[in-house]
Amino acid sequence: MKNIKSHFVFTKEQRSGVFVLLVLIIVFQCVYFFADLTTDEFKDVDQQKIAAFQKEIDSLGLLKQSDKYEVRPYNPNFITDYKGYVLGMSVAEIDRLHNFRKFNKYVNSAKEFQKITQVSDSLLLVMSPKFKFPDWVTKKNISNRYSSSYQKDLNKAEAKDIHKATNLEYKLAYRVVNFRKKLNGFLSFDQLNDVYDLSEEDIKKVKQKFVLKTIPNIKKININLASASELASLVYISEYTAANIVDERMLREGFNNLDELKYVAHFPIEKLDRIKLYLTIN
How crowded is residue 235: how many other Cβ atoms within 10 Å of its Cβ? Predict the structure, then answer.
């Protein structure tokens, strides 16, 4: 019994050590529970990330909840503050839409809606299936996609391509191709004016559906040195006109600029701009 009791008897130094240990434990516990050891920079970054992440979770949670109420198709141009909140949009995103609409402007696609409101991709993915735009907007978007598919090179298109894209008569489409072959390729859309029986409306249709990507490499003819036969090789210049050009050149002792061709007898002045594409004075 005496030996057992000796284990619970402490000397003065031992009692002091136990007291100091207890004090240290209490101090460390207080520091752990009441002191904020994180730096301001760490807190700011961490809070920003947490807030952004929480916002995304809340938005998706609200959308999931709104599905229970069967959100019907709607025009995103008329989203109210309450509806925007239910759909998961932030106040700033709703305000951007309303500020855009103040000027009587409308978004006509999901992509444009995201550009204006700056909603996240994940939120747009959930919202966009419910977007419903007016019929004329839908038809316009389909028409734009259809027309863009016909942006082919006019210098490589076949008659059937032109007919399909513009709904021109086959004979007119063939005339466009045949005239292109005589020119060795169009240099300008203005040359469509020289296709027989092709109206301004027809030309407009071709311009809307085609582009000139492959421009032919044309060696220009020197108007002050060429013979009449060389000039007559151009589609636009007949042998008679070529002879008149040579005569006028001799009278003037050479042309100073191409615009002087309008003084040549029986020169097709209305085609001067197109003819100038093939000539030079140097």
Answer: 16
Percent of the chain, pLDDT > 70? 76
| 139-181: pLDDT as tens digits | 555 555 544 444 789 999 999 999 999 999 999 999 999 999 9
275 vs 241: CA distance, rounded Å: 12
> Average of pLDDT values for 100-122?
87
> What tokens does 263 get?
């003084």
Strands 279-280 and 152-153: unpaired
Q: Which residues of 53-86 are buried (b: 16+ CB within 10 A; e: fewer)?
A: eeeeeebeeebeebeeeebeeeebbebeeeebeb
As a whole number, mean pLDDT of residues 56-81 equals 68
pTM for this model (two decimals): 0.47
Domain layout of the chain by residue ranges:
42-141, 152-211, 221-280
Residue closest to 276 by CA, chosen among 258, 260, 251: 258
Residue 176: name the closest of 203, 151, 140, 153 by CA.
Answer: 203
Q: In the structure, what pLDDT confidence band is assigned to residue 279 with cuts at 50, 70 and 90? A: very high
DSSP letter string over the chain? -HHHHHTT---HHHHHHHHHHHHHHHHHHHHHHH---S-HHHHHHHHHHHHHHHHHHHHHHHHHHHHTT-PPPB-GGG--HHHHHHHT--HHHHHHHHHHHTTT----SHHHHHHHH---HHHHHHHGGGB---HHHHHHHHHHHHHHTT-EETTT--HHHHHHHH---HHHHHHHHHHHHHHTS-S-GGGGGGSTT--HHHHHHHHHHEE--S------EETTT--HHHHHTSTT--HHHHHHHHHHHHHHTS-SSGGGGGGSTT--GGGHHHHGGGEE--
